């Protein structure tokens, strides 16, 4: 759970569609609400704004959206041009101007320093330690499945780099192995029920770009065969655009 989560209310989604950032708030609570990133729910860190819709996010939080061919705003789902994402300089300036009290020790700090303050505030750490632990509503005796294949992260077939999700694998191979002539087994295909772990792609990079632009976990029913899964995924992907 993000440390700043308790500081951000549901009204965080009502950002102004302007690069000028939120208007000057009238209270500490509205400060916390207006300057919370909708993705990580913490105070903005190196904020950037999407040119087409004006929504603002932490630069690091928006990065995954910039790695896909046709990105959508995480907040309003409006398509945007990655080249028109700019540093939200005005918001950054306001973060250094406005102060709010720490919810732990009540010390007033600028919003720009709120993250680092909260991470070291003993009162906040104490509050977090005393939060109720998660308990299932209904106890269950069913064991956690242990034989489910890992279809979330993959190993680079060229260099063995680990824990790459599908988009990261595509990006990693394009940046580091574009000229590698070796024939390799696609780790994504081999993890699927229909996959052949011995089949080596003649042109693995082209295979990645043509077959793995979308996430199987998002679109695929693993109970159907490969061709039906691909067609269903493409149809659903097109309908979202």
Task: Write up this protein.
With 241 residues, this protein is mostly helical. 34% of the residues lie in helices and 8% in strands. The chain has helices spanning 28-34, 59-66, 89-97, 114-120, 122-129, 166-176, 187-190, 204-211, 216-219, 226-240, and strands spanning 47-50, 56-58, 85-87, 99-101, 108-110, 184-185, 200-201. The strands form three sheets. Strands 2-1-3 form a three-stranded antiparallel beta sheet. Strands 4-5 form a two-stranded antiparallel ribbon. A two-stranded antiparallel ribbon has the order 6-7. β1 and β2 (56-58) form a beta hairpin. The longest helix is centred in the last third of the chain and has 15 residues, at 226-240.
Structure characteristics:
241 residues, mainly alpha, three-stranded antiparallel beta sheet, 10 helices, extended
Task: Summarize this structure briefly.
By secondary structure, the chain is mainly alpha-helical.
Walk me through the topology.
Elements lengths: L27 H7 L12 E4 L5 E3 H8 L18 E3 L1 H9 L1 E3 L6 E3 L3 H7 L1 H8 L36 H11 L7 E2 L1 H4 L9 E2 L2 H8 L4 H4 L6 H15 L1
Antiparallel strand pairs: 1-2, 1-3, 4-5, 6-7
Which percent range fits the helix content? 25-40%
Q: Which residues form runs of ≥5 with pLDDT under 50? A: 1-24
- Figure out the total of helices: 10
Shape type: extended
The sequence of SSEs as H and E is HEEHEHEEHHHEHEHHH
Total beta strands: 7
CA radius of gyration is 22 Å
Mean pLDDT: 77
Beta-strand content bin: 5-15%
Structural class: mainly alpha
Q: How are the strands of the largest sheet arranged? A: 2-1-3
Biggest sheet, open or closed, and with what strands and sense? 3 strands, antiparallel
